[in-house]
Amino acid sequence: MPTPGPRLSPRLQRTLEAKLVEAQRSWRTPGLSVGVVRDCELVWSHHVGAARVDPATPADDDTQFMIGSITKTFTAVLVLQLRDAGRLSLDDPLGTWLPGTKHSTVTVRQLLAHSSGLQREPVGHLWETLEAPDSAAFLTGLEQAERVLPPHFVFHYSNLAYGLLGQVVERLHDRDWETCVTERILEPLGMTRTGLQPAPDRAIGYQVDPFAGTATEEPVLDLKATAPVGGLWSTVADMARYAAFVADADPDVLSRDSIDEMCRPLVVVDPDGWTGAYGLGFGMARSWCWRCGRGRCGCGYREAPRSTRPGSAASRRPRSGRLRGASAASCSSSSGAVTGRSRSSTSPPTPSPGRRRPSRT
Length: 361
Known about the structure:
This protein is an alpha+beta fold. It has helices at 10-27, 71-84, 108-112, 126-129, 135-142, 159-173, 177-186, 227-230, 236-247, 256-262; strands spanning 31-38, 41-49, 52-53, 56-57, 65-66, 206-208, 215-217, 233-234, 267-268, 276-278, 283-285, 327-332, 338-339. The strands form five sheets. A four-stranded antiparallel beta sheet has the order 2-1-12-13, sandwiched between helices. A three-stranded antiparallel beta sheet has the order 9-10-11, with no helix packed on it. The chain has a domain at 71-186: DD-peptidase/beta-lactamase superfamily (Beta-lactamase).
């Protein structure tokens, strides 16, 4: 059943429900869950389809889904915590913590912004074999990895980069990444249903055959050293808490200024259209035209992508009727994706050739 949403009009709720049904149909997903956060509270949620197809089991606000690459934002928050504590600088080279690596000149900032030029995946066949490396194998493979582009040349998505950031976090805290994210982010924010190990009542991920329409259950992955890349499971309710944190930072976790810094564009994702950018762990989309006063307009005017978090400098612009602090958490039982804003804003990049892998990151 939907969570009551007194701050959403009945008309808006009907519109959202219709969009949710259409999304489930067009994505061919067995189940889909969405929550809307407004003024830092979960004010509406809705669930269609099933979290498990046999037997058909509906999802609710506490059903766990694998959130894929949203995990990267948690890794980025851990890094900014270390920066604010004076433990590192964003311009420190990787060789500070991994001495002797041939990629020692890559900086923390470049890794966070997907501007390092490092290859996309860790060395090996993670998404083909679904066997993740431990720390030793991950670091051994690093020496075979390529820097395929110069730094800051273009946005180049890299799971390898965030695996390396996880290694930096572990070395500076002298504990594993899972313990760090639990103690320093999840517990302070009350995200009690978020972690690397899902509960027995989790949603099941399915690979839906594009022709037969049959749903094949996907395995639960132990991502080991690549957990900082995309290993967390979460719920609509917990992602709403996280969305509220991003909108209005809890200083016990990370300062508002640091969250603003993370949401500042550093590299344009699509140089031709200028509709998307990436900051320090967060992606941004251009959705408002200052010239013609319309979202995603066709007037030809281009502005830099910006953060629209409430209270941020970029969000202080005249726009009547804007839902201040509004965001959404959506979950799909076929792809295992959960987003802090909207599902479409974090669509995964094209998978590498080979066996079609589950769309997890």
